[in-house]
Amino acid sequence: MAAQICPTVLAGNPDEYREQIERIARFATRVHIDIADGQFAPTKTIPIDQVWWPGGMRADLHVMFKQPFKHTKLLLDLRPQLIIVHAEAEGDFVEFAERAHSEGVEVGVALKPETMPQMIEPALPWIDHVLIFSGHLGHFGGQANTHLLTKALYLHKMKPQLEIGWDGGINDQNAHILAAGGIEVLNAGGFIQHSTDPGAAYRMLTHLIENTKPRTLQGKEEL
Predict the structure, then answer these.
(1) Within 10 Å of residue 217's Cβ, how many Cβ atoms?
(2) Where are the domains of the chain?
(3) I need a surface site. Which of 28, 163, 166, 199 has the fewest CB within 10 A?
């Protein structure tokens, strides 16, 4: 699967949210929408029922909630293509995944930097996407810790068809490294949203990862 750039939206109020969506609407085909409850993540974003995106755009919801499955109906009613919850969150993930799949929605699991992929290995049959998190919950920016790419290699070995995403610190210096390390969805926040020309920033990152071939895990080889 070819790597792709997916702009991120992270907003604390409806006006800011609309501004960020409009900033990327002309060029983005896929959007990564962060929502946070102010408990699991220190930042509180707009509530679930105020989330929207333009027609024709694929939407991935990254749910930074302590108890995300209390909101299953609201999340599924939005009809995103993918809902990502955290491995560190509370609740019955398998029950949620089975319900989401029954309604045609893919499910993903995000791993904080300190969380090892072995934690989610028993649930891999129900997981379509894993998000490797390398930033600060609820904030744009952060550092892209490329040592975390060993998670991508491990997960691809366990489930080759798994889609792997990355969140945190993506820029023009590391996008090609992440793509080469097995990241297929590069969720870029501040680099695009804070740019004076978001479209040019998006095109730059896309150009940098074009034709990048990911490394493969041979035996016990690591980065």
Answers:
(1) 18
(2) 4-209
(3) 199
Contact indicator for 110, 84 with CB cutoff of 8 Å: yes
pLDDT in tens, the chain (223 residues): 689 999 999 999 999 999 999 999 999 999 999 999 998 988 899 999 999 999 999 999 999 999 999 999 999 999 999 999 999 999 999 999 999 999 999 999 999 999 999 999 999 999 999 999 997 665 555 778 999 999 999 999 999 999 999 999 999 999 999 999 999 999 999 999 999 999 999 999 999 999 777 764 433 334 3
Task: Give the predicted TM-score (pTM) of the model.
Answer: 0.92
DSSP string over 186-201: EEE-HHHHTSSSHHHH
Rounded to whole angstroms, how far apart are CA atoms 98 and 145?
32
101 neighbors 77 (Cβ within 8 angstroms): no
- Kindly tell me the burial class for residue 79, based on how many C-beta atoms sit within 10 Å of its own C-beta (0-12, 13-18, 19 or more): exposed
Residue 177 has a CB neighbour count (10 Å cut-off) of 16
Q: Which two tokens stand for residue 64?
A: 């930074």
Angle value at C-alpha 173, between 169 and 174, nearest 5 degrees? 60
- Return left, alpha or beta for 79; rule: phi > 0 is left, psi -120 to 50 is alpha, else beta: left
